[in-house]
Amino acid sequence: MSNKIFAKYLMTFTFVIYAAIVSLLNGCSAEAPPAAAEKPNVSVQTVQPQTQALTTELAGRTQAFMVAEIRPQVSGIVQQRLFVEGAEVKAGQPLYQLDSATYKATLAQAQATLAKAR
C-alpha cells in the first residue's frame, strides 16, 4: 500500500514541476510590449457664466378656494342680471331684476280679499 501512496505523491510532484516549468517558459518569452495607444483628440472650451430662466410647463386643473352659490329667496321671472360673472359683489347689492307684474297681481288679489273680508 505504501507503493500506491508513493506513486500518488510522485504524480502530484511531477505535475507541479511541469506546471512551474511551463509558467517560467511563458514568462521568459521575448515579446515586445504592446505599443502605447494613440492619444485621443479633445477640444477644450472655457465655461462662461450666464443666467438661465427655469420654467416648467405642467398640465393640471385649478379649483377655486371659496365658492359662493346664488340662490333665490323668492320666485319670479328674471328680467335682467345686474352683475358680471366673476366680479366682486357687496352685501346687499341687487343681483337680479325680477318681473314686477306677478307681484302686483298677487298684491291686488290680496287687497281684494282683505276688502271683501271687512
From TrEMBL:
<protein>
    <submittedName>
        <fullName>Secretion protein HlyD</fullName>
    </submittedName>
</protein>
<dbReference type="InterPro" id="IPR058625">
    <property type="entry name" value="MdtA-like_BSH"/>
</dbReference>
<feature type="domain" description="Multidrug resistance protein MdtA-like barrel-sandwich hybrid">
    <location>
        <begin position="67"/>
        <end position="105"/>
    </location>
</feature>
<dbReference type="GO" id="GO:0046677">
    <property type="term" value="P:response to antibiotic"/>
</dbReference>
<comment type="similarity">
    <text>Belongs to the membrane fusion protein (MFP) (TC 8.A.1) family.</text>
</comment>
<dbReference type="Pfam" id="PF25917">
    <property type="entry name" value="BSH_RND"/>
</dbReference>
<dbReference type="GO" id="GO:0005886">
    <property type="term" value="C:plasma membrane"/>
</dbReference>
<keyword id="KW-0813">Transport</keyword>
